[in-house]
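Weekly puzzle thread! Below is a chain. First person to post its structure in token form gets bragging rights.
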Amino acid sequence: MDESDQPGPKPKYRRIILKLSGEVLRNTEDGEPIDANTLLSICKEVKKVYDIGVEVGLVIGGGNIFRGLTGAGQGVDRTTGDYMGMLATVINGLALMDCLEKLGVTVRLQSAIPMDKLAEPFILRRATRHLERGRVVIFAGGTGNPYFSTDTSAALRASEVGAEMLMKATKVDGIYDKDPAKHDDAVKYDHVPYINALRERLQVMDSTAFSLCMENKMPILVFSMKEPGSIYRAVMGEQIGTLVD
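Winning reply:
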């Protein structure tokens, strides 16, 4: 889609990578890994920015199904566990693709782990071309290598496709100096320099992802997925969440 053809206000960011935690898809009441209502709600939020011409790449985790580090703590070999987690991101990617397509959004699923019956292989030029043609691209399979998180995958893909912003949707409305769920006096930051995020070990993205973004001057916006319209507000340049740059 061409944003120049869209009426009304223009988005501040033309191309974004949206990082979603796999945990946001989980039904907290019955423990089902993918809640249909939550999935639909997220896809409707993505469609809002797709409809105004924003080029959207999605990276989703697999923690709602399997997390490599958790598996390692339960006796699963770390490398094997990480590959299991990468496969979980493909399952989530398929769910997102199916839901978005039913909303009328053109989608391509690319996987860093070859599985041609389910997804395209990740090829940078093809992914960039999809974005240019107004297709949402879902990047699954992590980086294709163990020992790297989906945060790192999101930072890598954002840098590769030339995104203007890496947006991380979480369960909290930004970055705090301590866990706001445990501390009533937790202070929220509106802005954090990369180096401070690394030095203070602010546990929102891992240090590898932070470092990659810092080296490539990729700004990170951390905000709450629970607030309706938050993705739209973010791409329009409104002050929400915490900006790391």
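Puzzle host: Confirmed. Bonus trivia for everyone else. Residues 87 and 141 are 6 Å apart (CA to CA).
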